[in-house]
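SEQUENCE AND FOLD
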Amino acid sequence: MLSFRFPISADNARHILKSKHSSCTFRSNRIDSLSFPPISVPRFHKLRTAKTDVVGEEEAREVNERAEEFPDGLRRELMPEHVAVIMDGNVRWAQKRGLPAASGHQAGVRSLRELVELCCKWGIKVLSVFAFSYDNWSRSEGEVGFLMSLIERVVKAELPNFGRDGIRVSVIGDLSKLPEQLQKLIIDVEETTKENSRLQFIVALSYSGQCDILQACKNIGHKVKDGLIEPEDINKSLIEQELQTNCTEFPFPDLLIRTSGELRVSNFMLWQIAYTELCFFSTLWPDFGKDEFVEALSSFQKRQRRYGGRN
């Protein structure tokens, strides 16, 4: 789904692949984090009144946010709280242009950077992206090793930026499959950004919606076995507490966007998207930008969400 362009040796790729496992082993009840390329978010500036008094940072923040460009036709009060995206089409984008696959992934990073910035500007609280599926471990050792090495480099480079921009970064997925050094970096980013509140950026890495539900059921089964709960206590709320999206206040995406013309959800947040509004684009991910995002948001705001009831 998502990658960055850095060199990796064959030896490093083989070393990274040694950490692969054959079954889902999600860790429960933890918030993980990942970083990304620099994100351009508006800085806060001190403002002066007619009496030259300095306005506090919080007031400056409110003034700047009100002044942010907001697309015509969209209503702030109808914006989704949680947007999820299946970023698809990087390699096809590169192939159409006679470029190497890495160029497509690099172009996809630019699209993601723009999307994160727009979510910050327009008041969306959570952005989740499907970066690397659990099922992607079946790809070639070279490709997987390449991706893991790139992610580690980005984590190291970008740790300071999310704190600066007020973005909390979380990772969900079977992180036990990642190289040990990358796991340590993820923990470091989690600790550093956990108090940030402007946007929560959730990256699904080595993630499977089926495994997420399976691990939740196993955790609950252990609690029953240990006498902590009774089988009659099991309900939807209890299951949701064990899902990896327990890392956010808004675990259920309001809007799911998928690019590249594919009309499926590909094992992404299967429990969480039960009542999510779906929006599919034929646009390849590197070509997805502000206009397409506005189109998706406009479509979302015109829909009636009844959750099985009637108006």
Notes: The mean pLDDT is 82. The two ends are 39 Å apart (CA to CA). The CA atoms of residues 209 and 269 lie 5 Å apart.
